[in-house]
């Protein structure tokens, strides 16, 4: 019902009061699990308890505790109120009716350390209204509260696997299955979509039994699970936390007594200790864990075995992902080829490094692309972290399901004189039509870019195929390695940047190598 900007829905849990503006019903700060506080810290999420009366859902809930990170405020908006009580989701719907619209659930990124579903960039009203879909954004526990394995460090006294943040996402998807019909959505047609750590989370959700049946298709933007930790490495992080805090492995009460502020301080110290030689701080020290309980295999390995064979996918990346991170690069003007070789040797077998760097140099030279050390570093890091793992996952999936669509987002931001290029995270503002002059750029071309992506993403959510009027036919990746270039002038190309792709053929699966 709608009355005086008021919208009320009745669920089996109780009544929710949201708002209705410009034809979109909005419900913010909806609890989808019990607050993970006190004795529930570091445990899997528990079902939310029913409430009496009408629960107000007119304001966003608190977000997961987090430290600020480079460019975090620019991408995620100004700092939001934080609390361990953070398991909330938000819903935008064109109608509280029985229309059974496609449901699109957004899982935010942020290196498993920052971000929220209530970031201004993810405001879902335009996407919902323009495309007649139901949009859901979710919070999940982050960093040392969501992805810290303590089971090994405490000999099981605290049974945290390091996948509690993933299980929060599963709990949100289960809530959507049970309740989204009341918001005009179809629980039988749920698309999960996300970017960076959100996309890496989706790669994990594709493989874990707990998430099976809770979604029906997936859109992965710039990330496919390459940061998933093997159990041994995750256990070391847990033990290092004990060292940093000075708490013994059997003093469980002291661990539970740590305040949020103490945990955030400890995370900064862990990021310092685990940094590579050129990093003042690691971007993240925690990530989903291949623990053998929640998740048994690396995502690409499991997908190669067919665990996601029923799921159509869009998988892609941005042309110049790494340019976002180069902004904060210390002494970037002093980077030379020798440093590129040294850095790459930390992440892939050193025997391959010289050949890869030379092949990138030759390929870029032949195309007339910039071969300066900084541009070379950006191009190689973009591929090693994002584009090549995405292609390897596509190739693993299409053996079981040909409905895999690849894209390369090449639209370049005009902000800051164009130094961002087609960088990491740039496409998100266009997905939600929240592009602005702080990051994405505005104007007719930006508006066109947003409409193109929205049309493709929602066509996929509705029909399993992203082909639409704005793009024409978007062919599956297939044997021709078909890739859709997403820009103001879109086009479908075969074997895109093939010279660089072939440089990795002898290296192996990057999702395994980057452990």
What's the gist of this structure?
The chain has helices spanning 72-76, 125-131, 143-146, 164-179, 197-205, 231-245, 252-257, 260-273, 299-304, 323-326, 337-344, 353-367, 373-397, 428-431, 444-463, 498-502, 510-513, and strands spanning 2-3, 6-10, 15-21, 24-31, 54-56, 88-93, 101-107, 134-138, 185-195, 217-221, 229-230, 289-290, 313-318, 404-409, 482-486, 491-494. With 515 residues, it is α/β, with parallel strands linked by helices.
Per-chain topology:
Layout: E1 2-3, E2 6-10, E3 15-21, E4 24-31, E5 54-56, H1 72-76, E6 88-93, E7 101-107, H2 125-131, E8 134-138, H3 143-146, H4 164-179, E9 185-195, H5 197-205, E10 217-221, E11 229-230, H6 231-245, H7 252-257, H8 260-273, E12 289-290, H9 299-304, E13 313-318, H10 323-326, H11 337-344, H12 353-367, H13 373-397, E14 404-409, H14 428-431, H15 444-463, E15 482-486, E16 491-494, H16 498-502, H17 510-513
Helix pairs in contact: 6-8
Which descriptors would you attach to this protein?
Rossmann fold; alpha/beta; 2 domains; 14-stranded mixed β-sheet; 17 helices; 16 strands; 515 residues
Domain count: the total is 2
Average pLDDT works out at 94
Please write the CATH class name of the largest domain. Answer: Alpha Beta
Task: Label the structural class.
Answer: alpha/beta
Task: Classify the oligomer.
Answer: single chain
**Tell me, what's the shape?**
globular
Here the CATH topology of the largest domain equals Rossmann fold
Strand content: 15-25%
Low-confidence runs: none
CATH architecture of the largest domain: 3-Layer(aba) Sandwich
Radius of gyration: 22 Å
Question: Helix amount, in percent?
Answer: 25-40%
Number of strands: 16
Helix count from the secondary structure assignment: 17
CATH H-level name of the largest domain... which superfamily?
Alpha/Beta hydrolase fold, catalytic domain
- Major sheet: size, sense and barrel closure? 14 strands, mixed
Span between N and C termini?
51 Å
